[in-house]
Amino acid sequence: MIPSPLPGQPQLHYRDAHLHLEDCRLADLAREHGTPLYVYSTAHMLAALSAYQRGFAGRRAQICYAMKANSSLAVLQLFAQQGCGFDIVSGGELARVLAAGGDPAKVIFSGVGKTRAEMRQALDAGIGCFNVESEAELEVLSEVASSMGLRAPISIRINPNVDPQTHPYISTGLKGNKFGIAHERTLATYQRAASLPGLRVVGIDCHIGSQITQAAPFLDALERMLDLVEAIEAAGIAIQHLDFGGGLGIDYHGDTPPAADALWAQLLARLDARGYGDRLLMIEPGRSLVGNAGVCLTEVLYLKPGEQKNFCIVDAAMNDLPRPAMYQAYHAIVPLQAADQARPALEYDVVGPVCESGDWIGRERSLAVQPGELLAVLSAGAYCSAMGSSYNSRPRPAELLVDGAQAQLIRSRETVTDLFRQERLLAVQ
Ligand code: LLP
User: Fold this and answer.
1) CATH number for region 12-41+291-419
2) Ligand 1 centre distance from Cα of residue 205 (Å)
3) How many angstroms does the Cα of residue 425 sit away from the middle of ligand 1?
4) Quick check: CB of 284 below 6 Å from ligand 1?
5) How far does residue 287's CA lie from ligand 1's centre (Å)?
6) Domain segments of the chain: what residues?
7) 322 C-beta closer than 6 A to ligand 1
8) Which of 111, 82, 76, 95 is nearest to 205 (CA)?
9) Antiparallel, parallel or unpaired: β 129-132 and 85-88
10) Which of 64, 296, 312, 355 is catalytic?
11) Rounded Cα–Cα distance for residues 292 and 251 (Å)
12) For atom 15 of ligand 1, which residue has the closest CA?
């Protein structure tokens, strides 16, 4: 029996044996818009955001949605309407924020490889802060801002050397990672920043990794950050805001991250105890705002029994939903129509049509399905569509945002001609 509502996803539930997201019957949406299809819940995103807002109640705080998790314009618009700023990592993301009506003054620009053109674009737009990741970047940013007659607002991203106990590909705050400035170099780097003509120090920043499901790494990073703030301010450089980086992990498969408000109660207690509770606090959550708000709907094309394994071949693939192929990530897969109890379930590897053995969506899943039936891949709101590609010349799926019983198309399905619009045949000799 599949529980309803599904764990971690209160907006997803079976009603009359049909899976619904809020009040929308997902099979109807799949029939109308085709598959693969991404569907997101407005209520889930707003509830996830409000857990952070509750955590910060009564404090000076700015939530900057890490839009790399899901950068669809309508999703950005929804968060902008709630007062969110945005954590961006490219000029392309900045353009999306502006197109969605976001406030550039609430934008922070992270990333180790900002180009001069991106710096100019961000300075022109008047973003709130650059999170600088290396000493070399400081020099270039100062030069670019000076040439425009400006002073760029900056934080330095420190690398606290804390183990977030997550997948190595998404752990960022260890010495061996490419991100941030080593703890030992931080004070000297702030002193250099304060001396450069094109820069204005406004904050400090840290991000230790993603899909973190415990409070301890956040608390450790906080203590290390505050030690540095003490040293930097003792050297006469004021730090106005403290940015704690990305947010919490989510429940993919029985994961039990703390609630955002519970985590913040602990962090605020430490901040208050050390006398920093009245600073402007910033966070950059991505996954926890959108991850469990989304599902990817897919149709079963073929069942292929085998000697060692049975394969359930579906029409969504690693290009649409790359997390399993990239990180061996687990995404629950459930039928859109609750299975007839009498039908026997078999164990399948759920795979897509892409010509790679790494193209799988789920392994060893017990399913009672037939070709033509529909499945939902869960927890697909973050880092799924956003990391998708058109590999194998597969157009990107359509996307819908539901709100109660309403579903709005927020991205049309890409067409094959969209895929090769920028390409040119060779000139005929
Ligand atoms: N801030 C910075 C500087 C980041 O690099 C990230 C994520 C975030 C905030 C948001 O972190 P979150 O709240 O989502 O944990 N593609 C991977 C995740 C990559 C995360 C990259 N940085 C995945 O699918 O698991």
Assistant:
1) 2.40.37.10
2) 14
3) 38
4) yes
5) 7
6) 12-41+291-419, 110-285
7) no
8) 111
9) unpaired
10) 355
11) 8
12) 210
How far is the centre of ligand 1, averaged over its atoms, from the C-alpha of 86 (Å)? 13
In testing the pocket of ligand 1, which one of 65, 181, 287, 290 has its CB within 8 Å of the most ligand atoms?
287
Neighbours of 19 (CB within 10 A): 26
Residue 106 DSSP one-character state: G
Answer whether 110 contacts ligand 1 (Cβ < 6 A).
Answer: yes
Query: Would you state the structure tokens that stand for residue 335, as one six-digit string?
Result: 């039928």
Q: Is 69 in the pocket of ligand 1 (CB under 6 A)?
A: yes
By most ligand atoms within 8 Å of CB, the mutation choice from 112, 131, 134, 210 for ligand 1 is: 210
Active site residue 355: yes
Report the distance separating Cα 400 and Cα 428, nearest Å.
Answer: 43
How far apart are the CA of 107 and the centre of ligand 1, in A? 16
Look up residue 91 and give its two tokens.
């000029």
How far is 395 from 415, CA to CA, in rounded Å?
Answer: 6
What CATH architecture applies to the domain 110-285? Answer: Alpha-Beta Barrel (3.20)
Whether the CB of 379 sits within 6 Å of ligand 1: no
Q: Which pairing describes strands 280-283 and 294-304: parallel, antiparallel, or unpaired?
A: unpaired
pTM beyond 0.85: yes
What contacts 24+ positions apart, CB below 8 Å, involve 80-88? 82/46, 82/49, 84/49, 85/128, 87/284, 87/286, 88/127
Establish whether residue 102 lines the binding site of ligand 1, counting it when its CB lies within 6 angstroms of any ligand atom: no
How do the pLDDT tens digits run along the chain, 429 residues long?
Answer: 566 777 778 899 999 999 999 999 999 999 999 999 999 999 999 999 999 999 999 999 999 999 999 999 999 999 999 999 999 999 999 999 999 999 999 999 999 999 999 999 999 999 999 999 999 999 999 999 999 999 999 999 998 877 776 666 566 666 667 788 988 899 999 999 999 999 999 999 999 899 999 999 999 999 999 999 999 999 999 999 999 999 899 999 999 999 999 999 999 999 999 999 999 999 999 999 999 999 999 999 999 999 999 999 999 999 999 999 999 999 999 999 987 777 889 999 999 999 999 999 999 999 999 999 999 999 999 999 999 999 999 999 999 999 999 999 999 999 999 999 999 999 987
287 lines ligand 1 (CB under 6 A): yes
57 to 84, 271, 290: CA distances (angstroms):
15, 15, 21
Query: Residue 189: enclosing H or E segment and its boundaries?
Result: helix 186-195
Tokens describing residue 425: 């045949």
